[in-house]
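TEACHING EXERCISE
Course module: macromolecular assemblies
Task: Read the component lines below, then compare them to the predicted structure of the full complex.
Student: A.B.
Group: 4
Components provided:
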Amino acid sequence: MKSSTICQEWLNSLPPTGGYLKNEQSIGREFLLEKGMPSKKDEAWRLSNLNKLNSFLSLPRIIDNKDMKSIFPEKDENRERIIINPNKNPILNINLPNGIENLNNREIEDNIGKIVKSTNIKNDISVYLNQASSLELLALKVKRNFNQSLEIVIPSIEGKSISTRIFLLIEEGAKLDLLQIFTGKNNSAQNHLIEIKLEPKVELTHGLISLGEKKESSSICTLAVEQSEQSKYSLHSIHHGWDYARYEPRIIQSAGEASTFIKGLQVTKLKEQIATHSLIRFEGPNGKLDQLQKAVASEYSHCIFNGSIEVPQKAQKTEAAQLSRNLLLSKRARIDTKPELEIVADDVKCTHGATVSQLQDEELFYLLSRGIDNHHANSLLLKGYYDEVISHFPKSARKWNFIEKLIQDVKK
Amino acid sequence: MISSTSETILSIEDLHASVEDQEILHGVNLVVKEGEIHAIMGRNGSGKSTLSKVIAGHPSYKVLSGSILFKGKDILELEPEERARIGIFLGFQYPVEIPGVSNLEFLRVATNSRRKELLKSELDTFEFEDLVKEKLKIVEMDPAFLERSVNEGFSGGEKKRNEILQMALLEPVISILDETDSGLDIDALRIVASGINRLSQPNSATILITHYQRLLNEITPDFVHIMADGKIIKTGNKELAIDLEKKGYEFIDKNAKEKEMAK
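Instructor-supplied answer key:
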């Protein structure tokens, strides 16, 4: 890893450190100043298209209010919507539903940055880039024993690079159904850092829809979640349409005794590259994980999945299953999938598997033999393939039209 | 239902076909007219299923020579979906499970493809639900099966009923039913057979591929053909199937040998 001129210029262009993220900004900037951007020698970035990464540094960051002109589908009656404006304090002008409050300064100070730090990722570029440049924070807590639905929308801005930072504290016994939507416009870049702390007996259903809608849009999203005992976390994600996207979900079961369900889907076309680097660590016994990661790559595109699971000595009786299923629709497309299981505990059940296949000829013939044309038959099969992931999203999420986008774009 | 003026639906002449470079069909000849029910019997590996796949246009099967005419038109250049749309229906021996694809949506898309060909209006979701509920009665199928993925987790009998339901919706001109009776208990066999009988029309035809006489007790064929080594070697009426059930295929072999000797 070495410093590059573009990185230094970018650091120089940032406003002085300040606000309640001052300390975080300093950490990120100092790291980047010293180490710079990643190179192919860094294992975690070995397959990454580093040229595409530069757009995070080269695009302007100053955003005028007139730049914000996204139009979104109507919000759900039962789900409060927060639209993040990266220019302003995002929690202004938001009607928080009963049971959701802003964190006070003390709570922010006590919590911010701790979860992501505990994931112990070496040379954590995705995070440092965000820390260095995020100016505002959305920090909320869902109060004890409340049951809420929330939608957080992060629009991108054409020709600009943005960073957003979110912290959620979900108090004991609370239930939250959270839907997050990222959209990417022409020639834009966005870096999101989300930290979520689940206190005991919390149930969080987390849908993440990440849609690069136009050409040359890039996204980095780091999601760090700490689960206390008896908490249940279900994460469903879709990444589609980004020229470059890197998604890093990291989940720490801090005392074991918790359940994690992950269903992820990434779909690439043209020359796009989308990567998921997941980490799940069990810091105590009796933890459960069920992870399914699906990828579909067509044309010249590239999908990457790197799935780490860490089961140290103290995590006895862990039950973890990871499956990576991949569909390669073109001879020129590429899929790299790598499970990484580090198991020290000796009384555990851990399984993993990876498959790469093509659309099944017999399934296709069955549909054709019923008069369904080739294009439609392929769409139906793809929809069927996606179903294992998309069926977990609430029905109301369909208004974001992601199913249509996932299907109409795929070419062999 | 056969009359002397019946139009020929399917005419197969000296058909040779292969799969994975191995010739399976060695000169099949078959003529099927409106209103007719044909049964094709024969040992495993005699070419019955290959014949059905070739007629439906399965891309793994290659026609080496010969012809297949549907209502006088050569169909060998047609894609499988085009053959289906003009009214050729293949009932699969092993209906394919397609996880994640709703059976209801699949049936609606298929039905609308055929209706378009018949210059009928396409059905929206609600109109289609009314139609499919009507057709479900023919195969005594639980509407809950519509909500599931195509054939996924269906028992053998349920899969075959789903095939006949598709036949009912698509209103084919010719139905080739490949071992529709296999894997069915007696009650399911009666239901499926009664469905096939109800769907027979004076202007359509059916080819039943079967191993057993028991299906032919429920559906009376006009012709019974015996296939061996990729050819139809004997054609008769229902009595031929009864003879076969009694005496086994050895009796056919013996007959064939005697014929050979007489030459």
